[in-house]
Amino acid sequence: MAQARLRGVVALDGPSGTGKSTVSRRLAAELGAAYLDTGAMYRAVTLAVLRAGVDPADAVEVARVARAARLTMGTDPLAPGVRLDELGVEQEVRGPEVTGAVSAVSAVPEVRELLVAAQRELISAALQEPGGVVVEGRDIGTVVVPDAGLKVYLTASADARALRRTKQDSSEGREGDLRATHADVQRRDALDSGRKVAPLRRADDALELDTTELDVAGVLEQLHKLVESHALLGEGR
């Protein structure tokens, strides 16, 4: 019997620490779909800005760096990867310096315009292949793919999100400080929700899924049910 595969686009939005990256990759892998981490794209541009010695608050210079950056995204959920100027930067884009500056860089209108266009191209290319695509970020359902077949907005308490991020940092060899991470979660929430261009918000037709009390398996179970209920499964080739 052929394996059921995703058809179309699943858009997963939500703030930092809700488990978007983990469950998006797992969902894509389990449904034979492509995967796109749009947050990694903004982080890669932020890394380019920092490497260039540019102030993240200088919108003109940030836009200049963004235009010049050569960014390559992998869409295989088992090995997605992100390359900046031909070099893999998967670990660097998750570092504290990038985390502290990414909201400011992401708020620059030209950066968002450039990356949204690139994201739509990647999504379009993925849809030409067997299987659909799972896309995660903060404006997927509202801006990038407003006609996605399924839109889910992941939430969780600030305490739960801070704890998850601290554990993730520690497991990946980065220093984890729960109090500092909690403060950073709240700071990023305020910046991402308050920016003028594509602010973080739930799309009107998105389904909200609170992950505070759910583990990865629990979230995936709910997502699989939603995919099935939205008739987004078809036979793979």
From TrEMBL:
<keyword id="KW-0418">Kinase</keyword>
<protein>
    <recommendedName>
        <fullName>Cytidylate kinase</fullName>
        <ecNumber>2.7.4.25</ecNumber>
    </recommendedName>
</protein>
<feature type="binding site">
    <location>
        <begin position="14"/>
        <end position="22"/>
    </location>
    <ligand>
        <name>ATP</name>
    </ligand>
</feature>
<keyword id="KW-0808">Transferase</keyword>
<comment type="similarity">
    <text>Belongs to the cytidylate kinase family. Type 1 subfamily.</text>
</comment>
<keyword id="KW-0067">ATP-binding</keyword>
<dbReference type="InterPro" id="IPR011994">
    <property type="entry name" value="Cytidylate_kinase_dom"/>
</dbReference>
<keyword id="KW-0963">Cytoplasm</keyword>
<feature type="compositionally biased region" description="Basic and acidic residues">
    <location>
        <begin position="166"/>
        <end position="194"/>
    </location>
</feature>
<dbReference type="GO" id="GO:0016301">
    <property type="term" value="F:kinase activity"/>
</dbReference>
<feature type="region of interest" description="Disordered">
    <location>
        <begin position="163"/>
        <end position="194"/>
    </location>
</feature>
<dbReference type="Pfam" id="PF02224">
    <property type="entry name" value="Cytidylate_kin"/>
</dbReference>
<keyword id="KW-0547">Nucleotide-binding</keyword>
<dbReference type="InterPro" id="IPR003136">
    <property type="entry name" value="Cytidylate_kin"/>
</dbReference>
<dbReference type="InterPro" id="IPR027417">
    <property type="entry name" value="P-loop_NTPase"/>
</dbReference>
<feature type="domain" description="Cytidylate kinase">
    <location>
        <begin position="10"/>
        <end position="228"/>
    </location>
</feature>
